[in-house]
């Protein structure tokens, strides 16, 4: 059984309803199989639920995702006085789209053709971040107000909440040496984005073997060091297109590409169009 909730960056969850409940005595979770996913958050007390034979206890300030199509039920064990919120939602069908397993690195924020085709994996169960109850209360209040496009607004807010849960889970794992090394690599690449990549200079700067750096970076980020350097380099090119009157040949030279035709070929591979076509998108007064 898949133990995670998978989101994609190009589609948001579609909310069915959001609610809150409190029990004054021992409570039994309903026995059912749903055609939608469930997000449970326990504000106080504790809730017991079983999914496909796997038991879970959700303690105060914890959450649990129940997946659609899986049988779940409860025993008469949920503590009296337990308060909990739920969000029922459907995930939009992604069809046959192929998604990357890693999100783009934060430093590579500019759009390119497959920018949004990646997955986000949330733990099935975990601790919530501070302010979760305020967020959920605001969502319920918003539904009551009935503004135009309210269900879509609510779905977008729930997606943002799930993104924040994902980020919190990432931060919990970020204390490993592999994460630290990857951050150091990105810092080095960012400071050398206007020049050709040098594996020996990177290895010397971090005082580590390049093969080890390359394998570690790929495992943590899902991208190669050279690919990341190239994207940072071209991101710098786009920044120059936006802010200067330099032509393509000047930009190529500024970034250390000796051949502007090679620069154009690399740019088109990443952005899906030539640098001259991309440049025409901008209105410049220079």
Task: Describe the structure using short key phrases.
286 residues, alpha+beta, Jelly Rolls, Arc Repressor Mutant, subunit A, 2 domains, five-stranded antiparallel beta sheet, 13 strands
Q: Brief description of this entry?
A:
This protein has helices at 132-145, 150-172, 177-191, 199-206, 210-221, 225-243, 248-254, 260-271, 275-279, and strands at 4-8, 14-22, 27-28, 32-33, 37-44, 46-51, 54-59, 62-66, 71-73, 76-78, 83-90, 119-123, 125-127. The chain is of the alpha+beta class and 286 residues long.
What does this structure look like?
- It is a single chain.
- This protein is α+β, with helices and mostly antiparallel strands.
- The protein folds into two domains: 169 residues, Jelly Rolls; 103 residues, Orthogonal Bundle (Arc Repressor Mutant, subunit A), CATH 1.10.10.60.
- 40% of the residues lie in helices and 23% in strands.
- A hairpin with a 2-residue loop joins strand 6 and strand 7.
- Helix 1 runs antiparallel to helix 2, helix 3 crosses helix 5 and helix 3 crosses helix 6.
- The chain is elongated and about 75 Å long.
- The relative contact order is 0.12.
- The mean pLDDT is 90.
- Keywords: DNA-binding, Transcription, Transcription regulation.
- This is AraC-type DNA-binding protein.
- Pfam families: HTH_18.
- GO terms for molecular function: DNA-binding transcription factor activity; sequence-specific DNA binding.
